[in-house]
Specification:
With about 400 residues, the protein is mainly alpha-helical. The protein has helices at about 1-15, 20-35, 40-65, 70-90, 90-120, 125-150, 155-175, 175-180, 210-215, 220-250, 255-260, 265-280, 285-305, 310-340, 340-370, 375-400.
Amino acid sequence: MASLLLAVIYIAFISLGLPDALLGAAWPTMSQDLGASVSWAGGISMTISAGTIVSALLSDRMTIRFGAGRVTAVSVGMTAAALFGFSLAPNYWTLILIAVPYGLGAGGVDAALNNYVAIHYESRHMSWLHCMWGVGASLGPYVMGYALAGGQGWAWGYRYIAILQVALTAILVLSLPLWKGRGATSAAPASAGAAASDVSSEAVAPRKPLGLKGVLAIRGAKEILIMFFCYCAIESTAGLWASSYMVMHDGVDKTTAADMASLFYVGITVGRALSGFLTMRFDDPAMIRIGQGVLLAGVVLVALPLPGSVGTVVGLVTIGLGCAPIYPCVIHSTPAYFGEENSQAIVGVQMASAYVGSLVMPPVFGLVAQYASIALYPFYMFVLLILMVAMHEALRRKRA
């Protein structure tokens, strides 16, 4: 039964990645059809992000009341309904309205599912599951491209993904007895070294939601939240500005730069597949440090004045490889550091801090590039990396 539930969760991660790149792939066509400015896609993205932050902060309360399985099923159902809504939207402002439940559903499932996996499965599964999310995120644009190339329009691209999400919702509903059958024993404690001794493997008693104030009062929580904020800021900044950096700094043509920038995401996906095997030998803190070291090497390569764009391209792939183990291993280590009884609340706030980092820090670099120089791209990531490393080491000292 445990293996069957794990298979369902793998399917869920692939399916959850499918919608994430749809807006970017469809917007050039959508904006023309809806009479919207190209720049207005940012409003939709920000509305979705705001919804994810709210639902992530509420995930502890919702999971305590309804359980991880129900929260995941309902959240995926909300996402499916929102995707159908996108396909029927007659104008831009309807998209903004529908983006609210879209974001709420995405944030709810993200926090609930990640914490459930962190408690019940080994670190390798967390890495491989996030690799599967990358596969889904990569396939989404191809589905949209199929609909556009076939003359069906962007609406059918959204409907195809919505249909898949409805199927996933049905699978999750049918799998609810499997979620109930899982105890609260955790595979996570073995992956966080000395901190593991603080975590009981017994089922935890019902408790009240911690809330944001309660999470911040826990020793070491601020450090892991800042660390996660910095990581997601680096990942989103690296991905968003890679193409612009190659064009404006390296003199690469726009088409080539767009193709080369995608290698960053290839690095993350391949890196997470490899990380799953490495976690069989190294614990979560060691994997995070390895990722940080590889990420540093990638930032240095981007900053070096090598001929053409060689340093940038190799550096971006290396940054992707370095990013790969950090996100899943930070989440997987949370129950071991703070206890299963606190992990859902902390993971929820982690997700919120991640979304804030992804939402705020790439535009901040846009201002840096506009008013200073785009050449500061690797140095901007370097500063965030140093802060992330400092927070990780402070966390280790406080929770060891």
